[in-house]
Amino acid sequence: MPHAALSPAIDQITPQAPAPPTELTLEERLTLIDAEMTARLDEAAVAYEVNTAHIPTEPVDLADVVTGPVDTGLGVTGPDPLPDLYPTPVAALLQRAHHRLLTGGWCSGALVDEDGARCMLGAIRIETRGDSGLEAGAVTVLLDAIRREFGDDVDSVPSFNDAHGGGRVPIRMVDQAARLADARGL
Fold it and tell me: Strands (DSSP E) along the chain, which ranges?
């Protein structure tokens, strides 16, 4: 018997040469680069979080950072009167003092500086129009508002005022004190 019939047929498969690579379009290249950059940025964000996790940070009060235009109260015919937002005397006094600080300026180290700007106490004092009981009530509420936010280490309104290099925080605290006085019905 012939052995050729029993031997398996060996097909010779000739490997085909790979197709030449097609050039990527601009959109395809940009998509690949975008994916690579996104992966790198994600990796960098994780590395940043790991590397800075041990650093203690204090939260930022957005009221100290985000500012808007100040209404100077100067209308076409002169200063616009301040609307009465608060019906109670201490809250209304603090509202007027806040408005005075916004429009007349804030200072530290003196009740009134040479330009007419006032400190927190100076603004309250000028707006009391001689009523020392009303002034004392406003200063007490203001000190309460300050201590609520900054702790009991604050000795007085003038020391708090003078501890700041700018008026943003002191002026904001006078506004918060007006809201607190209104909430208390003072």
Answer: 74-75, 78-79
Nearest to residue 148, comparing CAs of 105, 122, 183?
183
Element (H, E) at 70: none
**What are the residue ranges spanned by the domains of the chain?**
24-57, 62-70+83-184
Full pLDDT tens readout for the chain, 186 residues: 455 555 555 556 666 777 777 888 999 999 999 999 999 999 999 998 888 888 887 776 666 665 555 555 554 444 555 666 778 888 888 999 999 888 888 888 888 888 888 999 999 988 888 777 888 899 999 999 998 888 888 888 889 898 888 888 899 999 999 999 888 888
What is the reported pTM? 0.57
C-alpha 138/C-alpha 174 separation (Å) is: 9
Query: Phi first, then psi: what are they for 110, rounded to 5°?
Result: -160, 155
Q: How far, in Å, CA of 138 to CA of 153, rounded?
A: 19
Separation CA 145–CA 97 (nearest Å): 15
Sign of the Cα pseudo-torsion (99, 104, 106, 112, in order): negative
